[in-house]
Amino acid sequence: MDGRLYLKKEIREILDSLCHLESVILDKAEKYADEITVGFTHLQHAQPITVGFVFMAYFQMFKRDIQRLQDTLERMDYNPLGSCALAGTTMPIDRHLTSQLLGFAAPCENAMDGVSDRDYSLEFLSDASISMMHLSRWAEEFAWWNSSEFSYIAIDDSFCTGSSIMPQKKNPDVAELVRGKTGRVYGDLMSLLTVMKGLPLAYNKDMQEDKEPVFDAIDTVEMCLPVFAAMLDTMTVRTDNMRRAAGHGFINATDCADYLTKKGMPFRDAYTVTGHLVAQCTAQGKTLEELTLEELKAVSPLFEQDVYDALNLENCMALRSSYGGPAVSETARQIGEIEQFIQERS
After folding, report:
1. Is 20 annotated as catalytic?
2. For position 343, what pLDDT does the model report?
3. Residues 6+ apart with CB under 8 A from 310
4. Closest CA to 101 of 5, 33, 30
5. Which residues, at least 6 apart from 342, have a Cβ–Cβ distance to it below 8 Å?
6. Structural contact between residues 209 and 192, judged by C-beta atoms closer than 8 angstroms
7. Phi, psi of 304, rounded to the nearest 5 degrees
8. Are the CB atoms for 35 and 314 separated by under 8 Å?
9. CA-based, 20 to 30 A from 19: which of 189, 231, 255, 339?
10. Widest distance between CA atoms in the chain
């Protein structure tokens, strides 16, 4: 029972930290909702998106983390008190009253399950592992966004250190530590899963090993979330570098193929034509929009002057207004709905 009461309290504290992180993400998403950057697949330039769109993608991850923890709270909110060793008691107790007084939704339905269930700990550790995985993914992006090769962001000095021998270095220590501590929480989950995997009903002494991994995961998550939120809040986004990078790598190639498709060319052929143009640009050191209309028409007569509007990155963004897309208007819709989500949990 004490374990459940403790875990309920700590989950609520973690939920508070997640909601704070979400509010920081939301502020950044609103601030950079119309700043164009590069969308990657396979760590290669793919399509134009906005910085706000990236932030909202991570918002959705942590939103699911919040929902998972809330679901865990609901499922674990049953009181084992009165289950005794495994078979209940002959004493005239009122388990519903004690559950109410202790703040539980109801008593456990089955006394044997009440003493031998550790699903709530496992579920919490699973939730915590997923949350840490989300932090780790973003920490990885922080590390390479902050690198000299990208310079998409500048992490505040208070979250970095210098090198022991190289004075020019600014190492993203906090991002790397969060990334590393993710493995620690994974280990906590695997530790308890391994303890529980072969246990017969009801209580077995092995179960005393359930405390340490839960305590360790709680300490780790509660340390990482506020530090990550503070790092995020204080970082500088170098929108000029992001926009400059977006001008290279042919991230509007899909839009070129879409343009031809809308003119009546099958997409398979439009894909091939655009690939030919990309190869031509690479050989000439040009971007697609720097090709002359004559050069474009030499590959396909369907190209007209309006192709330059289709290749403009701002227009590429505006046209991606399908539900959940990166258009500024669609990001604004997402932000509006998410603000309601935050208010309901404040």
Report:
1. no
2. 76
3. 255, 256, 258, 259, 316
4. 5
5. 19, 22, 23, 26
6. yes
7. -130, 180
8. no
9. 189
10. 94
Q: Dump the DSSP string for 121-185.
A: HHHHHHHHHHHHHHHHHHHHHHHHHTSTTT--EE--GGG-B--SS-TT--B-HHHHHHHHHHHHH
Residues 122 and 182: their CA atoms lie apart, in Å, by 16
Q: Give catalytic status of residue 163 as yes or no.
A: yes
Q: What is the pLDDT of residues 193-213, one digit of tens each?
A: 999 999 999 999 999 999 999
DSSP string, 256-300: HHHHHHHTT--HHHHHHHHHHHHHHHHHHT--GGGS-HHHHHTT-
**Measured between alpha carbons, how far is 25 from 289 in angstroms, rounded to an integer?**
34
Burial tier of 274 (Cβ tally within 10 Å: 0-12, 13-18, 19+): buried
Residues of the chain scoring pLDDT < 50: none
Please state the pTM of the whole predicted model: 0.93
Catalytic residue among 116, 147, 148, 163: 163
pLDDT tens for residues 161-205?
Answer: 887 888 778 899 999 999 999 999 999 999 999 999 999 999 999
129 φ, ψ to 5°? Answer: -65, -40
Burial class (CB in 10 A: 0-12, 13-18, 19+), 188: buried
Q: Which two tokens stand for residue 216?
A: 């360790």
Q: In the numeric block, which tokens belong to residue 314? A: 């701002």
